[in-house]
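hi got a favour to ask and not much time before my train. below you get a single protein, a line of residues and a line of whole numbers that encode the local backbone shape. could you go over both lines and see whether the tokens make sense for that sequence. a few lines back from you is plenty, here it is:
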Amino acid sequence: MNPKPHLLIIEDDDLQYEIYEEALGHCRLTRVKTGSAALALLPQIQPDALVLDHVLEGGERGLDFLPEFKELLPHVPVIIVSGALEVRQQMAALQGPRRAHYCLPKPVDIRELRRTVATALQECADTEIIRQFEALERSRRIDAPELLSRSTDRLARQNEILARLSPSSERPNISALAREFKVARRTIIRDLQELIRRGQLPPAVYPEWENPGAEND
């Protein structure tokens, strides 16, 4: 059985979060009230999707953190839920290589929220990488070739890891993989987490996948 999808909810309003708890009971929810808290938490968790409010605690603005979220979690869909965005802000948030995927107004319709989350979770895979390639090409960013290369390298490395581990559920040697692929151990751990989250590898391959701090190799 695949684990429950893990959603990171960035929302400071308690009543709004209660709506998420009611509507998304089939998911595992982690909540923070600011973008700063989300960035501090991301090294410890690997969410399947982000639900992001724009007006946050302490005067923070959710859209200001969108580029950093997409840099840290390039293949994770972002759903903006806000009643404080003008049309031009919504359009800007949904465009470019550091874009959000969906923008829902407040008060949020529970059925629409559920449908959007279900669709977003399906994008945590190769199709999302293809979309990012296309967006980068259209953006004509100076660093687009570098970003494309990094995404391609990540995908190729994950496919190689999958090919090696899928015949069995034996625990991999993370240090050996890191040396072989010439990356940091945390990069291999993130690869394993993404493969497990997509259902491509069983959690038994890396039992600490939801709590990487407990890992000892």
